[in-house]
From TrEMBL:
Pfam families: ABC_tran. Keywords: ATP-binding, Nucleotide-binding, Transport. It comes from the Bacteria. Transmembrane segments: none annotated. Residues 2-227 form the ABC transporter domain. Residues 338-458 are annotated as: Disordered. SUPFAM superfamilies: P-loop containing nucleoside triphosphate hydrolases. Residues 386-398, 428-442 have a biased composition (Pro residues). PANTHER family: ABC TRANSPORTER, ATP-BINDING PROTEIN. Residues 338-349, 359-385 have a biased composition (Low complexity). This is ABC-2 type transport system ATP-binding protein. GO terms for molecular function: ATP binding; ATP hydrolysis activity.
Length: 458
């Protein structure tokens, strides 16, 4: 079990992790999610004793990492697959790690086999592809047959077969009763691999719950309704009836409607009352990716802007105006591609809106664009529609029944409302002590924070 209490890490004026408390339990795969720069790697490095918390603490099996007896046999980690001496063969790299930790040499051949590198074990790792390097990093993590495993982006660079293999490996390790903590940006992968999720944004805890609960709490269910093809008047009649009843409808690519704000039986009754035949009426739940986007969109530090040199943009409007060249955040600017779906942020403190979404006043459309009017054309491809601006606060979930679910908006620092949030200012933080040197029992394949640059470019 990994347990963090009030974990905080500052690098000079930069607060990378703030007041994080969570538990990672054995027997499950726990996904660790958060936007770029949200503090996932920093947290993992603190768990592994490679970074020293500014305050708070994190323990593995009740001990700080440095207090763990024979740590490399108890904790394995893949943090940075490139942290390998490229001139050494894969086998020699693992052998040197094994020797440092008192692990028998035969285990090296075992783990080379487990990760599928047995045929290239004597080749120098500098010739390895990204995926082979990942496999070598995973082999290093498995070397001590540890009960606790941390993987930072393990599927990075792996081909589909490799991704499937990692998924099965994680699940198998958890089924053996081990603690498996894995960060990833691949939501579809996490949805299939993880049992539980810990989500952070700007270094602070945003969600700690099962995958199922996470999707339930952060997504709006919807109904797909399809009227007969080639009968636009039927579709328009249905649209009018849905809107009159307080529902919202968005066009889907295949001509169906995505309806929120009305339960399925009501939609059926409305269609019947309007004398409209239906080819489809089906319930849907958003994906983990949609739920994640919805929760974290207020915590994203790095957003892309359109490339004005692509020749595809109108001239930029004056700052502060939404002129023809203004590009909404995350809107696709590629010809022939529709803007990516933009999930609206739920209003802070809003209750869970129920399986078919909130009533109209709460139910911002799930797709780009304004709610569709009867007879209105579907949004043109390649034309980003107006979008709801991101809101800073994540939604508040309902409390679970008898569970350990917690989900919080980023917490204000202790000290009351007048205390500045470290994320709101660049005010100097208390000085951080010099990074500790290589701790005894450093996890194979990882480097202490003394190897990292703690400074920031001006
Ligand atoms: N050694 C360091 N010195 C200074 N700042 C650092 C250091 N390590 C991390 N940071 C900063 O702390 C913040 C969190 O970084 P971290 O690498 O933990 O994020 P992350 O969630 O792992 O990001 P990503 O998903 O992009 O890998 C970032 O703003 C980063 O620039």
């Amino acid at each position: 079990m990994i347990e963090a209490y009030g974990l905080t890490k500052r690098y000079g004026a930069k607060t990378a992790v703030y007041n994080l408390s969570f538990q990672v339990r054995p027997g499950a795969v726990t996904g660790f999610l958060g936007p770029n720069g949200s503090g996932k790697s920093t947290t993992m490095r603190m768990i592994l004793g490679l970074d020293t918390p500014t305050s708070g603490q994190v323990t593995v099996g009740g001990h700080t990492f440095r207090g763990l007896p024979n740590a490399p046999r108890q904790v394995g980690a893949l943090l940075d697959a490139k942290a390998v001496h490229g001139g050494r063969s894969a086998r020699n790299h693992l052998l040197s790690l094994a020797q440092l930790s008192g692990i028998p040499a035969r285990r090296v051949d075992e783990v080379l086999g487990v990760v599928g590198l047995q045929d290239v074990g004597r080749k120098r790792s500098k010739g390895f592809s990204l995926g082979m390097g990942q496999r070598l990093g995973i082999a290093a993590a498995l070397l001590g047959d540890p009960q606790v495993l941390l993987f930072d982006e393990p599927v990075n660079g792996l081909d589909p077969e490799g991704i499937l293999w990692v998924r099965n490996l994680m699940r198998q390790l958890a089924a053996e009763g081990r603690t498996v903590f894995v960060s990833s940006h691949l939501m579809s992968e996490m949805a299939q691999t993880a049992d539980h999720l810990i989500v952070i944004g700007r270094g602070q805890l945003m969600a700690d719950m099962s995958v199922r609960e996470f999707i339930e709490h952060n997504s709006i269910g919807f109904a797909r309704v399809r009227t007969p093809d080639g009968a636009p008047e039927q579709r328009e009649k249905l649209l009018a009836a849905l809107q009159e009843a307080g529902g919202q409808a968005q066009p889907e690519e295949d001509g169906a409607l995505r309806v929120t704000g009305l339960p399925l039986p009501r939609i059926s009754d409305l269609a019947h009352g309007a004398d409209v035949r239906l080819w489809e009426l089906s319930p849907h739940q958003a994906s983990l990716e949609e739920a994640y986007m919805r929760l974290t969109q207020g915590s994203v530090d790095y957003r892309s802007t359109a490339d004005m040199r692509s020749g595809l943009q109108q001239p930029m409007a004056a700052p502060g105006t939404a002129g023809p060249g203004a590009v909404p955040p995350q809107a696709a600017a590629v010809p022939g591609m529709a803007a990516a779906p933009q999930m609206p942020a739920a209003p802070q403190g809003a209750p869970y809106p129920g399986p078919y979404g909130p009533p109209q006043q709460q139910g911002a459309p799930m797709q780009p664009g304004v709610p569709m009017q009867p007879g209105a054309p579907a949004p043109q491809q390649g034309v980003p529609a107006p979008q709801t601006p991101p809101q800073a606060a994540p939604p508040q979930p309902r409390a679970p029944e008898g569970g350990t679910l917690q989900m919080r908006a980023p917490q204000a620092p202790a000290g009351g409302p007048g205390t500045p949030n470290p994320y709101a200012t660049d005010s100097p933080a208390p000085p951080v002590g010099p990074p500790a040197g290589n701790p005894p029992g450093t996890v194979p394949g990882t480097a202490p924070d003394s190897a990292k640059n703690e400074g920031e470019d001006a």
